[in-house]
Design a protein that fits this description.
The structure is a homodimer. Chain A is mainly α. The first copy, chain A, has helices at 5-23, 25-33, 36-46, 52-58, 64-76, 98-101, 103-132, and strands at 50-51, 80-85, 91-96. The first copy, chain A, starts with a helix and ends with a helix. The structure holds a DNA duplex.
Chain lengths: 136, 136
DNA sequence: CAGAATCCAAGGGGATACTG
DNA sequence: CAGTATCCCCTTGGATTCTG
């Protein structure tokens, strides 16, 4: 007898939904570009190719581990390309691929919205905070 | 004598950069909408207002804690609005604000890019994985 | 210079139980 | 119904060290 229908069904639905979310292209993209270092790397490379060490200087807050991890994953996704020059001190360049370039307009629209509406958000936030914790 | 210039300056730069990133509107927006539950809530409410319990059914994977946290933060940012009806069993509706609606085109562009290019990403990924770990 | 490997602390997020 | 509060796990990401 299936007594635990409520909990069971909820659990199943949750599992399915999570699977669906994982499969959802939009969510995949969002989780890619929303990554702090991913977006910053994209912006950094939008201005042209950069070397590994240049990137560490462009993004002073990034650790080597995170930089390596970030460029590797972006390379894997075909968003940036890696070029190793076999010189004496190895030299590696990273640049956006054509696919990566198509991402720039998207980033730009996000940037536009942010710059246009962030003030409204701040205001709403102040108002909300004032309204809830009114110390009067 | 300032001996530790290298490490010190790196550290300072990192701190400043992190502060800059935190202040950056684009990054603020990205971290908002990239949140798994935020984006899903936005999509859910794009189709019209929903009650608290409806949202839990629309997003079966979400916990009550996360739903509350998500709607509260979106309300604070002026992106969604909360309306409590003082009926016997309390009834609360959530809907997008005009500001929240302006976010939909942005979400749509993200969705478009994802649906148009996700295949290329998958291919690149397969190629990359095949090229690196070639079991020959 | 470019990167791999290890260690470890902080916090995001889920499950559960309780409340008005 | 619409939350709130607590516990706890497990991932994320930084610091450090080592290598080709």
């Amino acid at each position: 007898m299936t007594t635990r229908t409520a909990a069971q069904r909820r659990e199943l639905a949750a599992i399915e939904y999570n699977a669906f979310v994982r499969e959802c292209p939009t969510h995949k993209l969002l989780s890619r570009i929303s990554d702090k270092w991913v977006s910053l790397t994209l912006v950094a490379l939008a201005g042209g190719p950069q070397r590994y060490s240049e990137l560490t200087r462009t993004m002073p807050g990034i650790s080597e581990k995170m930089l390596t991890q970030t460029v590797r994953s972006l390379e894997r996704d075909g968003i940036i390309a890696r070029t190793a020059h076999a010189s004496v001190p190895v030299r590696v360049d990273y640049r956006l691929t054509p696919l990566g370039e198509t991402l720039l307009p998207v980033m730009r629209q996000i940037k536009d919205w942010a710059e246009r509406h962030i003030d409204e958000v701040e205001e709403a936030r102040d108002y909300f905070d004032g309204a809830t914790s009114d110390s009067a």
